[in-house]
Known about the structure:
Layout: E1 3-7, E2 13-16, E3 20-24, E4 42-50, E5 55-61, E6 65-72, E7 75-79, E8 84-87, E9 91-96, E10 101-107, E11 114-121, E12 131-136, E13 147-152, E14 160-162, E15 167-173, E16 178-182, E17 188-196, E18 199-201, E19 204-206, E20 211-215, E21 219-224, E22 228-236
Parallel strand pairs: 13-14
Antiparallel strand pairs: 1-20, 2-3, 3-4, 4-11, 5-10, 6-9, 6-11, 7-8, 7-10, 9-12, 13-15, 15-22, 16-21, 17-20, 17-22, 18-19, 18-21
Amino acid sequence: MANTIFHAADTRGHADHGWLNAHHSFSFAGYHDPSRVHFGALRVLNDDIVAPGMGFGKHPHDNMEIITIVLDGALEHKDSMGHTQAIHPDEVQVMSAGTGVFHSEYNHNKDKAVNLLQTWLFPNKKNVQPRYDQRVFPAAERVNQWQAIVSPIDNEDPGMKIHQDAWIYRSKIEAGKSLEYNLHSTGNGVYLFVIDGSATTEGQTLNRRDAVGISETGKITIDAAADTELVLFEVPMEW
Length: 239
């Protein structure tokens, strides 16, 4: 029988700094819950809304795989590797911090907030050469199917590459439809985060911004009660 951990949207850590309205699925910055430090190799899942023209100043990272998914608006990214790019909805950015990188992130627009999901995964290889990738993942290609956006660097699965045996998928499941997911490894778990909509999996109902961690299973089935957008992380529970 699968092991499940339910994280209701309103139980997430919350910090409103005026320019930043942030919700944390796991312990982060001033929010610390010893029962919610990480789910396997998934360390951070922040749901951030950044005010127009505001953002995160230059700051360092190292030995972390960082994935940014923009849901609404546009995020401007600058880093010490020489990249200056805006990230829009349906675009995803991956950055392997490795031996160390500095970057800044700002709302690209002066008149509209930007909503993004930023996730951090522990790497399975430390002190790698920092690297950056950014791609468009069309919304039409994830309707009632899994759209691979991230996969391990050492295999040929689609998606941008990270230094971890982990996969990230997006999907939009139409109301009344079901979607099955088969795990790549029995030692992995899945963390399912609902962006919008309502669905049920493993007997657990998930609404907007709810999440569930599921381990000790080989597959799950998701039944959508309404049109449901979600992101799924398959990660090693130990690494």
